[in-house]
Write a structure and sequence with these properties.
The structure is a homotetramer. By secondary structure, chain A is mainly α. The first copy, chain A, contains 10 helices and no strands. Chain A has helices at about 5-20, 35, 40-65, 70-85, 90-95, 100-130, 135-140, 145-160, 165-180, 185-190. The first copy, chain A, starts with a helix and ends with a helix. The interface of A and B includes residues 8, 20 and 102 of A.
Chain lengths: ~190, ~190, ~190, ~190
């Protein structure tokens, strides 16, 4: 079974999620600068979520490049990842419209955490299908960055109830950490 | 005529339907846990419909893998399937917002039933085009799972007027029954 | 320049239009059969527009199959067609919500007419690029069905101001006329 | 790393943006010609933005045709471009619903300006990856049209506060200037 259709389908879902995100930026009533001000937190959350979805798309791109074939398990592990990503527009809208309140900031983190776990499951499913000498396993190594992200998300969820700015700072940290595409895989592909 | 464009178009429609589904999860007014509670039935219906669309996409993927070429009849049988699937976000939203009331639960089942019938028509159209020795016919066999699903949907529609929880339980049963990708085809492709 | 990306882009736009169409079917307030009744005209208009978009996608599929290469003119003639198709959800929603009133029924026809003209321009642009011995020109012949459709749309627009049911009947006529994929091209491809 | 998936993803995003644009054309309450009149500025802005997105898609198509391979930098430069394009439906809606008022007209220009800058960055990133003898660099030359567009956008933003019609006229000018696909690249591809 070829992986082309899996890639195309995932690309389609992520492309739509990225554009649905922007629907939360509702056209304001007024026509002056003041009308834009209440949109600022929504806009900033939009930028953050855009980067997260971009990171997932980019890493997914790299990961599938090292996958050989697709079986039913991989297909569902991928749908599981897309499920959590599909909730990002909802949590983005909720966090953005509530000026970074505690519960929406925590729920935003829960969805990111679950997406990271789903990504990790997908990765392991592909590696399991490749058996020994898996190219993906070799490229990923200990996957320290993936594990660290999950730990930071968990911390951010807890800290949202202390002060939501801690969580926001941690989400931005993870986004920046991944903004650079995964050089481990890229160098292996090039090498 | 190649089947690539038919696959890409179907993938596009299903990818959009999956993401449009989540638009029914409207951002709540409040910013606490209580604000999320009324969304729970909508969320559960969303998960159910996501799984159904995932099952259709996965089975469609497997089925077209065994198709050779595409003609006008197959193209329209496929559009007919997409038509019924396109109504899933509507019935999902209606059922979710009405706490699983009788009529919405029955209409939800009607759309699933019609989609299953459309899938079966598409399957038969492809087999008819392959003539004797059809690889798809051999892989599917008696299609017991497909026929059983249609029977369960019909039962669920009737039971929605007795107690909607019966229907909900039956929909979940069908979803779980299909969550495992069609091993008959997969083993044949691998074999 | 390859035609693959033009096909993929057009498929994407039509796939999204088909699914955006269904967004006009808003989830009703009530949970009984009576709540569905006001949706009936919207639903019927939805079915009609779904068929029209399906016809365009199917014919576009066949037409590009006979195109050799894509140049800038073809690219813009194609975008011009997509522009008119993109207005179909708007006119569908307006006609559906106004129980087939005169002006919305006429405007619905104007968009279909312009899409048909745009399709014809795209066809001529591809043929012009192929020069003599164009395979597409040979397959299409006099394009009687295309010209007839344009004439029927023009009649339907005028008749919308007499009685909108005439227009509705004419739109259904054109849809049925095209529901059968273009055998002239299909037989040529097969032959 | 192949460029196919980058093209497909970009096509997906632009296809969705083009169709989301039309969602700002809300179905009016009335059913007569008067009901359409308030939609006229929204419609005209829609046409303008449709042309801009079409121009970006067409030029992107041409540019990637001359790209060889895709690396992480190109991937993110492309996402950066898509980010600014994703804001076009928002600015289109805001400008259209405010009858071309000053601030919305200026913000519309800011997003176009940033998209043009992002396009230019993407172009330079691809050229940098190709090194000497870059086919894209040769095809683009001094990129006078790209630089001129950026200058016109900047002027249009400033003039929006004098009289918004100046900006509107300038936006239309840029759109017309690009409506012709980039012959420099096309002739090179053909040659």
């Amino acid at each position: 079974m070829s992986k082309g259709r899996l890639e195309a389908f995932s690309d389609g879902v992520v492309a739509i999620l990225i554009t649905i995100l922007v629907l939360e930026l509702r056209v304001p009533q007024g026509a002056d600068w003041a009308a834009l001000r209440p949109l600022l937190p929504v806009f900033l959350t939009y930028v953050l979520s855009f980067v997260f979805l971009g990171v997932y798309w980019s890493n997914h791109h790299h990961m599938l490049h090292l996958a050989d074939r697709v079986n039913g398990k991989i297909l569902w592990a991928n749908l599981h990842l897309l499920f959590w990503l599909s909730l990002v527009p909802f949590t983005t809208g909720w966090m953005g419209q509530n000026h970074f309140a505690s519960v929406p900031a925590a729920v935003y983190g829960v969805v990111l955490l679950m997406a990271a776990v789903a990504y990790s499951i997908l990765q392991r499913t592909i590696i399991a299908g490749q058996g020994r000498g898996s190219r993906l396993a070799a490229a990923i190594g200990s996957d320290a960055k993936g594990k660290l992200s999950i730990a930071i998300y968990a911390t951010a969820i807890a800290l949202a109830f202390v002060n939501q700015w801690f969580s926001d700072a941690l989400y931005v940290t993870v986004a920046l950490m991944w903004l650079v595409p995964d050089r481990r895989i890229e160098s292996r592909v090039a090498g």
